[in-house]
Write a structure and sequence with these properties.
By secondary structure, the chain is of the alpha/beta class. The protein is built from 9 helices and 12 strands. The chain is 35% helix and 16% strand.
């Protein structure tokens, strides 16, 4: 019987991973349960597990600019500690990373082996974690980059749009950043599928197919929720200056799924439609009229 460990189990993706693993032998480790930078604690918990999913992360992109050492500890040192524990215990590691390891200057989907060049501190911290996993576990480490993640749990763009729709007549949303909105539940299912496969170790891109802008995503959220999409107006990134620079192009290529015997994940609009009709979003939708 395969035994699974999920770190970051209290987060949006972590909760969806637990749901995807329902009925299996799973240990859920929330932030309060495990400090992934503590080698002794990590080695003790990894022992007895066959697959480790690392969904623990520092996700405050802007905060990382002034607290880089803290971000690096979680996003860089933590995955390195997990990888070493997995090597020692003979477990496979599925580590979740980000499109922010790229600089966003591309004009076509980034292949999995594209050169990395983070724009901000958060991206640098995540790249450190990627490199550690791939170096320590060349034959049993999986790095899955995702982007524009949303789900029923936690804070995310889709839920924010629904919340603001209830209190504002119009929303101004940037239309000069391009990416692939991805439902955390679809990603969780794909991560489990990858872990259960005989896929070669290395980097995979766990994002929806297709592409849109934040404005396009917001309009789709409105339309699919029975709201007027014209209430979402276009603006540019210059109107929203943030401490951390954001990549303008975050579209990831999916060629390596073929090596795993899997098709790319479904189109972002199809995925969003399914998400917004899922019962888990019912409470959010109820307050968006």
């Amino acid at each position: 019987m395969t035994r699974y460990l999920v770190t970051g189990a209290g987060g949006m993706l972590g909760q969806d991973l637990l749901a995807a693993l329902d009925g299996r032998a799973v240990t859920a480790a929330k932030r309060a349960d495990l400090d992934i930078t503590d080698p002794h604690a990590v080695h003790a918990l990894v022992d007895g597990h066959d697959v480790v999913f690392n969904a623990a992360a520092w996700t405050d992109v802007d905060g990382a600019e002034t607290a880089y050492e803290s971000a690096l500890a979680v996003n860089g040192t933590g995955p390195a500690v997990l990888a070493k524990a997995c090597r020692a215990k003979g477990a496979r590691l599925v580590h979740v990373s980000t499109d922010y390891v790229f600089n966003g200057a591309g004009t076509s989907p980034y292949p999995e082996d594209a050169p990395t060049a983070p724009l901000n501190a958060y991206g640098h911290s995540k790249l450190f974690g990627e490199q550690a996993v791939l170096e320590v576990l060349p034959d049993s480490g999986y790095v899955v980059r995702t982007a524009w993640l949303y789900g029923a749990q936690g804070r995310n763009f889709v839920k924010t749009m629904l919340r603001l729709a209830a209190t504002r007549e119009f929303l101004d949303v940037v239309d000069d950043q391009v990416g692939q909105p991805t439902w955390s539940r679809d990603l969780a299912s794909r991560l489990v599928e990858l872990a259960d496969s005989d896929a070669p170790a290395g980097v995979y891109h766990g994002t929806a197919s297709g592409q849109t802008t934040w404005h396009g995503l917001a309009q789709a959220v409105f339309a699919l929720s029975g709201l007027d999409p014209e209430r979402v107006r276009r603006t540019t990134s210059a109107a929203y200056v943030t401490p951390a620079a954001r990549p303008s192009y975050s579209v990831l290529g999916h060629d390596r799924w073929a090596a795993a015997g899997m098709a790319p994940m479904r189109d972002w609009h199809t995925m969003l439609t399914a998400a917004l009709h899922d019962p888990a979003f019912a409470a959010v939708l109820g307050g968006a009229g």
